[in-house]
Amino acid sequence: MAAQPLSRAPWVVPTWQRLSEALEGGRLGHGLLLAGAGELGQSDLAERLAARLLCEAPAEGLACGSCRGCRLRLAGTHPDLRRIGLLERDDGRLKTEIGVEQIRQLSHWFSLTPQFGRGLVALISPADLLNMAAANAVLKTLEEPAPDRYLLLVCSQLQRLPATVRSRCQKWILQPPAAEVSRQWLQGEGIAARDAAQALEWAAGQPVAALELARDGGLALFREVSEQLDALATGRIGPSELGRIWAGDQPEQRLRAAVAEVARRGWSGEGLTVAGDFTKLAAWSRQADRARALYAVPLRHEMLLVELLQGWRSLHRGRTA
Ligand SMILES: [Zn+2]
């Protein structure tokens, strides 16, 4: 995560200002959709808004951080704030969707009286993982708005949320910033200029994903994978040998890097003339993505990798170093 709160990032600030103005002017909706592709700061925005709504002495449009409401919220015990997210399964892993029972309980809670009189705030995140029945239950809540009830839906894949729910919400959608803004922001977070530019390419222009990539040592691995794909394409290394290397060292990460690298090449046009056919490259990328998903289940992974890498080699047949 960013060292600075994302709500202060340059591409988030204007949206926060408009949100504050809507709040001050009494124009804030009952159902609010806070969205951005991947993570652009919508979670921070939702947290900031929830804090502001529950604060008893907001100053300059922000929560004070020290009143009773703020203290309880920071301690995670504010009775007028509810968080709905993915529940844990019996084996300790997270469920893959938000279920209808969670929303039914929320609707009931919304019918109660706020304990501190400032309203009830519910935060659903990730709202794009509401299952169909849960989304319908949310829709019902949105159709019967009560005063001082705020439903904040945090979303990173807007198209996954049913259109009926989307259309009932006041929308606050963050757009990815221009490349130059992202680069400057990344450098402000301590990332070197060259790393920032490269991380942005692999993260498809998404600044937060690029920051994570540059921070967790991912760039070195991405560079290595890019070079290995070139070596494989030109026959300097064989699929079996590379498959063995990948299987033995961070295979899932390498597959993720390979998918990002193909996307980057598609974007920049790099290597497309030799690969000949973008469709084939895209198909290979999907295959790599599936292989990555298969890593969650025990399989003969090395064979899977070798097969995938053979495919890459034959895509580039005839190309030599
Ligand atoms: Zn406060």
UniProtKB/TrEMBL annotation:
Do you know which Pfam families this protein is assigned to? Answer: DNA_pol3_delta2 (PF13177)
Tell me what this protein is called.
DNA-directed DNA polymerase
Q: Which reaction does it catalyse?
A: DNA(n) + a 2'-deoxyribonucleoside 5'-triphosphate = DNA(n+1) + diphosphate
According to its UniProt record, this protein's enzyme class is transferase
Instruction: Give the originating organism.
Output: Pseudomarimonas salicorniae
- Source species taxonomy: Bacteria, Pseudomonadati, Pseudomonadota, Gammaproteobacteria, Lysobacterales
* Matches recorded under InterPro entries: DNA_Rep/Repair_Clamp_Loader (IPR050238), P-loop_NTPase (IPR027417)
Which EC number(s) does UniProt give? 2.7.7.7
Alphabetical keyword list:
DNA-directed DNA polymerase, Nucleotidyltransferase, Transferase
Keyword Transport in annotation: no
